[in-house]
Amino acid sequence: MENLIQGFADFRRDMSAEHRSLFAKLASGQTPHTMFITCADSRIMPELMFNAEPGELFVYRNVGNIVPPYAQHVSGVVAAIEYAVLALKVQHIVICGHSDCGAMKALQNPAALKGMPSVTQWLMHADVARYVVAENRPTILGEEGLRYLTEENVVGQLEHMRTLPVVAAAMANGSLRIHGWIYDIARTEITAFDAMEGTFRPLVAGSNNLPDATPHARFSVPVASAA
To answer: Can you tell me the distance from the alpha carbon of 107 to that of 123, in angstroms, rounded to the nearest whole number?
Structure first.
């Protein structure tokens, strides 16, 4: 705790005049262009990763970067999305998973959640990833299975988010785009979900064409031939 207090003192002492002016301006309101939904994992630092200034990103974090589907029960993340879209008028929402995710490891080994009933119930919103991987991928175990689970969880949460009326309406009128990303901690690389290809591909700086993350069928379904 003492490190945090000293860190804040250093922050105030070393702040540039430009940043002091920026904070004075932000004191009266915020206009972030992007909502960034990511995991609560302490290794994920959005503002640092994107070299973002205060006021640019509206960040929401939870275990497993989860967005529950629309229902009468209101969760914190759903309320935050509604506020971001209607009040802050964000133009983009990113759902960002990451490598070595503890929540995805728990999908591989549910026994690890013994004694954590709240976490167990929360991760039911990610069960779609476990089911999709078990039914369509060669394995759910090991590093390969963990990568599959991380990818399918991001895709599943994008689908959940589209069930929110405020998101569906904003996407329909073109004022909002959604994106599914995965951050590799060791490589400091990001891959983005491309719904047209059904795959994650590297996020490239300078490209004006972000991958379209509108969810679609990830796996082909055999069609029975006519008799």
So the answer is: 8
- Return the amino acid letter for 211: P
pLDDT digits (tens, 9 = 90+) for 142-172: 999 999 999 999 999 999 999 999 999 999 9
Q: State the burial class of residue 119 (Cβ atoms within 10 Å of its Cβ: 0-12, 13-18, 19+).
A: middle
The residue among 80, 76, 23 whose CA lies nearest residue 53 is 23
Contact (CB, 8 A) for 97 and 39 = yes
Write down the domain spans for the chain: 31-202
The one-letter code for the residue type at 36 is F
Class for the domain spanning 31-202: alpha beta
Q: How many CB atoms lie within 10 A of CB 99?
A: 18
pTM of the model: 0.90
Separation CA 20–CA 157 (nearest Å): 37
Tokens of 32: 């972030």
Amino acid at site 159: E
